[in-house]
Every structure is written in C-alpha cells, then in structure tokens.
Write a structure and sequence with these properties.
4-stranded antiparallel beta sheet; alpha+beta
Length: about 100
C-alpha cells in the first residue's frame, strides 16, 4: 500500500455567513496552510480534522491502493486530487498526492 501526502493548501473564512447563520463556537479549525500529513492507507493522520477526513478518506484510500485518474483527467497529475472539507463557513482546501 502506498503512502499518501495531504497538504493544507488554503483556508477560507466567510464571516458574513458565520454572522448570519452559525451559532457561536469556541473552536473550529486548527489546520494551517502548508501543514502536511502522511497517511498510511485508511488510517487518519494524527491531528487531522475528523470532518475533513470523512471527505478525503475515500480518495486517500483509492490512491493508497494504486487508483488514479479521478473523473477521467480532472487533475494534471493523475495520482492526485484537490479537495475541500465540508465546512461551508470556513472551508479548507487540501492537495492529496501519492508519495513515491
């Protein structure tokens, strides 16, 4: 099984939507742009967001088992994907790629 690298590429924050719709919360996201995680198959990396993992894990598992070319040529590197977590108030974009 191949290792898969997850890199935090971008964090967004939609303050207007938070103010309008979200109840106040004290703790949302600790991830930082440039942060890197290495996955061993299906195992969620230490310190990685549970919610983001739910979105990324099927793609990580596919890449770890040798799958590639999601959506018939979507990515320039067929052994990668650009994905975002499902937080509509503060989405985080992740680049996942196979470690060679």
């Amino acid at each position: 099984m191949k290792k898969v690298k997850i890199t935090v590429m971008r964090k967004a924050l939609y303050s207007d939507l938070i103010e309008r719709f979200e109840n106040p919360i004290e703790h949302a996201c600790d991830l930082e742009e440039g942060q890197v995680f290495i996955c061993n198959g299906w195992q969620k990396p230490e310190g990685f967001c549970d919610s983001a993992w739910e979105t990324l894990s099927p793609f990580v598992m596919t890449l770890a088992h040798g799958g590639e070319n999601f959506y018939d040529g979507w990515m320039k590197d067929p052994k990668s994907a650009m994905l975002s977590c499902n937080d509509g108030f503060r989405p985080v974009s992740f680049y996942i790629e196979v470690c060679d």
